[in-house]
Automatic annotation (TrEMBL):
Organism: Paracoccus aminovorans
InterPro entries recorded: GAF-like_dom_sf, HrcA, HrcA_C, WH-like_DNA-bd_sf, WH_DNA-bd_sf, WHTH_transcript_rep_HrcA_IDD
Transmembrane segments: none
Role this protein plays: Negative regulator of class I heat shock genes (grpE-dnaK-dnaJ and groELS operons). Prevents heat-shock induction of these operons.
Annotated keywords: Repressor, Stress response, Transcription, Transcription regulation
Stated family: Belongs to the HrcA family.
Record protein name field: Heat-inducible transcription repressor HrcA
KW Transcription (keyword) present: yes
Top-rank taxon, per record: Bacteria
Amino acid sequence: MHEKAILTDLNDRSREVFRRVVESYLATGEPVGSRTLTRDMTEKVSAATVRNVMQDLEHLGLLDHPHVSAGRLPTQLGLRLFVDGLMEAGPVSATDREMIEETLDNDSGDTGAMLDRVSTALSALTHGASLVLMPRQEAPVRHIEFVSLAPDRALVVLVFADGRVENRVFTPPAGHTASSMREAANFLNAVAEGRTLADLRRGISREIEASRQKLDQMAAALIASGLAMWDGEGSDARLIVRGRANLLADEASDLDRIRSLFDDLERKRDIADFLELAEHGEGVRIFIGSENKLFSLSGSSLVVSPYMNADRKIVGAVGVIGPTRLNYGRIVPIVDYTAQLVGRMISGRKG
């Protein structure tokens, strides 16, 4: 509450100086000085007057000047207050709408392929990296197989009734054998028929306990460690990431920050948390810098919106991640429109 009051208490001149500093930073990524601002101010004021206003804004925590130069940059607090109180988000342009809608033309019914196209279009439009979380698939499991890759690495393969095949590499219990892998697979296939993966995960502990005398201890451990790869609300296979290279196109990029972000995106950590970020509020949410618990070490911003199925249940999310100087006013409506469009396609509604 106190932070919002800061913006409310600013006079017109201070608000204009603050807005122009932020807008300049979002456009160029560079500090802006008092002389530059003086040329564009609505009222004719001296550079010294503007410099004094900038110093006041710095004392309030809205601006910072990172170097010995007189140029100022917005702080994370400054960006947050700008986004919440001063940003003007325009409508999605006809060109942007057309590009997003084209990804849904000639839809083959393959949700994954459609969302892959959406993600590619989103990264191209926003010049950031796009994140699209697919809905969790609920087709029954048809077959499960364990494959040994090395003493400390194994593969669990799931074939679903709709023909989809997913696999994960996991760390099996030490001392596993080919026979324990066969026993684990045979046990799972016997109890999996007609059950979704979520059903299987929920009931597997009871099944193991009921069959413990017949089930080898090693096989039981294999089942537990193998199915753990699908534990929780989602898996890394559900997150589509496109446009990582866009993050390197910015000449002002901090390479250490970009490397950290690439590492996060490559490992696709905390995927369930990505959806959780979107679920705690309707519409688009903006996370700036350390507000973003997924990528806080990278000093980046995330714009994310959930999408819903026909039952109005949140089943996935779309988002864009990039430097804190994202063009929020343009990207927010694009993410919002994309999420609504994907929701209509997922739920079978046209519009």
